[in-house]
């Protein structure tokens, strides 16, 4: 079984405003039976990764969850350099997470990687309070081609 996960194409949203942030494209390609969709593409921001890590930590028991890159506000160097270092760190985090059988069993991880649901929507879905099951939410997103629209938009 092979799972490739890539964190790429960082984009600054709301540039120049006080609430600007960077989101990253997460591209997943796998033949693993653990995943509902074999390919997906979503955009997530750093604070969603922080939420995911917290949830994985809560549910993993004694299994160590990989670290995220730091949230340094005193970074020395260019913004581009910081964003690239963070992108690399987020990719390493996800690569380690998808290799861990215990972490891979967490449905929050699957919704994070394979749906465009927000954090509160992921929570509702996992707790059975959403309008769809976890599998339905992932398949709905996969069938909507949203992931591929994003993939196409970023090509020159």
Automatic annotation (TrEMBL):
It comes from Alca torda. The gene is Snx11. This is SNX11 protein. The keyword Membrane applies. Gene3D superfamilies: Phox-like domain. CDD domains: PX_SNX10. GO terms for biological process: intracellular protein transport; vesicle organization. GO terms for molecular function: phosphatidylinositol phosphate binding. InterPro entries: PX_dom (IPR001683), PX_dom_sf (IPR036871), SNX10/11 (IPR043544). Its main location: cytoplasm. It comes from the Eukaryota. It is found in: Cytoplasm; Endomembrane system; Endosome.
């Amino acid at each position: 079984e092979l799972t490739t996960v890539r964190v790429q194409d960082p984009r600054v949203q709301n540039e120049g405003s006080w609430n600007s942030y960077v989101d990253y494209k997460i591209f997943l390609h796998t033949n693993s039976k653990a995943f509902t969709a074999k390919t997906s593409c979503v955009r997530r921001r750093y604070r969603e990764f922080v939420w995911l890590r917290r949830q994985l930590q809560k549910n993993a028991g004694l299994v160590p969850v990989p670290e995220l890159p730091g949230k340094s506000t005193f970074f020395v160097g260019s913004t581009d350099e910081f964003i690239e270092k963070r992108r690399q760190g987020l990719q390493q985090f996800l690569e380690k997470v998808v290799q861990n059988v215990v972490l891979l069993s967490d449905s929050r991880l699957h919704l994070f990687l394979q749906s465009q649901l927000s954090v509160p929507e992921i929570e509702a879905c996992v707790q059975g309070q959403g309008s769809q099951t976890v599998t339905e939410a992932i398949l709905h997103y996969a069938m909507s081609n949203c992931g591929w629209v994003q993939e196409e938009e970023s090509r020159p």
